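Data availability (excerpt). The following record was deposited with the supplementary files.
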Amino acid sequence: MRYSRRSGVSETPVGDDLFLVDIAKGELFHLDRGARGLWALLDQPIEFAAILKTFSEAFPETPRDQLERDLRNALATLMSRALVITVP
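Predicted structure:
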């Protein structure tokens, strides 16, 4: 399964953070630095394994199982807010 950003979401960086606006719904979302990195990877469709590999390389001191859990939770949150979709 691959994940990607949903179209119709604008973004505004503020320092290390990123604010997303769902234009259709008029909703505002805040992403911290870690979630901002995930959002950047979702610019093009990407498989979870590639996301996990990128984060594992960026944060080698963090146990892989913790990264996997955190990334799955972050993706689930983004999907529940209709900011991220799955693509074939």
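Summary of structural features: The first strand starts at residue 2 and ends at 5.
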